[in-house]
């Protein structure tokens, strides 16, 4: 099996493409290995279109918290008294982008306080050094991020981009 | 171009109370526009007076950021529940 086929199957397994897309691409790759120039161009176009589709499809940051058995039982407020609630948050990436840009409006003395608080926690990071291109890279990198935490009592935390 | 959010759905529920609201966000935009036009002489005057201090530029940036944040809210969804308690906010 070639690298192209593996990549297509991985994307199918990850749910980034559907069965029809995978079939179309596998057929195209198979035709390419058969060998005509026209088919090679078709494969390139298909893979380009697919890459665009995958990127366009990623629009939301999803955060889910699922409690273990009996996790939502009990009295008291959410996430207090030992309660683990069920959380499902979907945030548009465009809103995150806009939110991060808001950091440029934070007054300098507030940034100094944030920096010193970070420093106290052992994080040597200057929030004033965040630039526009860094923000764009950060948003792009979010697409590849996936956090999956299983708690000791069966609770699960997932953070991913969809 | 993304379209602005039209509705905000809010639902809060606990053992004793149940509250639901469909907030028509699309009505806020014309309302804000009218208020902006009515107050524009005062706003322009304030901007001119405070221009040298740098506050005017900052205020304009904040206003722009608020508009952009509002515009990009469509699709936001928050659903938190435990037992009988539930808070649900959705922007569509």
Question: What's this model, at a glance?
Answer:
The complex is a heterodimer of chains A (162) and B (92). Chain A has 162 residues and is an alpha+beta fold.
Structural account:
- The complex is a heterodimer of chains A (162) and B (92).
- Chain A has six helices and four strands, in the order αααββαααββ.
- Chain A has 162 residues and is α+β, with helices and mostly antiparallel strands.
- In chain A, strands 2-1-4-3 form a four-stranded antiparallel beta sheet.
- In chain A, helix 1 packs antiparallel against helix 2, helix 2 runs antiparallel to helix 3 and helix 4 (93-101) runs antiparallel to helix 6 (132-142).
- Chain A is extended and about 65 Å long.
- Chain B has helices at 28-49, 55-71, and strands at 7-13, 18-24, 77-82, 85-91.
- A four-stranded antiparallel beta sheet of chain B has the order 2-1-4-3, with no helix packed on it.
- In chain B, strand 3 (77-82) and strand 4 (85-91) form a beta hairpin.
- The radius of gyration of chain B is 18 Å and the shape is elongated.
- In chain B, 4% of the residues are buried.
- Classes of the chains: A alpha+beta (162), B alpha+beta (92).
- Chains A and B meet through strand 2 and helix 4 of A and helix 2 and strand 3 of B.
């Amino acid at each position: 099996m070639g690298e192209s086929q593996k990549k297509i199957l991985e994307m199918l397994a990850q749910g980034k493409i559907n069965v029809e897309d995978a079939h179309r691409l596998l057929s195209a790759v198979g035709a390419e290995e058969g060998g005509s120039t026209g088919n090679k161009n078709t494969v390139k176009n298909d893979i380009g279109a697919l890459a665009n589709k995958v990127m366009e499809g990623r629009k939301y940051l999803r955060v889910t918290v699922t409690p273990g058995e009996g996790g939502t039982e009990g009295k008291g407020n959410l996430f207090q008294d030992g309660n683990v609630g069920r959380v499902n948050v979907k945030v548009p990436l465009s809103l995150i982008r806009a939110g991060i840009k808001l950091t440029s409006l934070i007054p300098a003395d507030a940034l100094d306080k944030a920096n010193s608080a970070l420093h106290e926690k052992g994080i040597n990071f200057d929030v004033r050094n965040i630039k526009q291109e860094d923000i764009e890279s950060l948003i792009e990198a979010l697409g590849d991020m996936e956090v999956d935490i299983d708690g000791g009592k069966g609770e699960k935390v997932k953070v991913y981009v969809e | 171009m993304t379209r602005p959010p039209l509705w905000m759905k809010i639902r809060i529920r606990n053992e004793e109370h149940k509250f639901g609201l469909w907030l028509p966000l699309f009505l806020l935009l014309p309302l804000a526009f009218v208020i902006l036009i009515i107050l524009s002489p005062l706003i322009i005057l304030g901007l001119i007076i405070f221009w040298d201090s740098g506050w005017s530029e900052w205020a304009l940036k904040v206003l722009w950021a608020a508009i952009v944040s509002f515009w990009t809210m469509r699709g936001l969804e928050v659903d938190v529940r435990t037992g009988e308690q539930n808070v649900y906010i959705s922007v569509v």
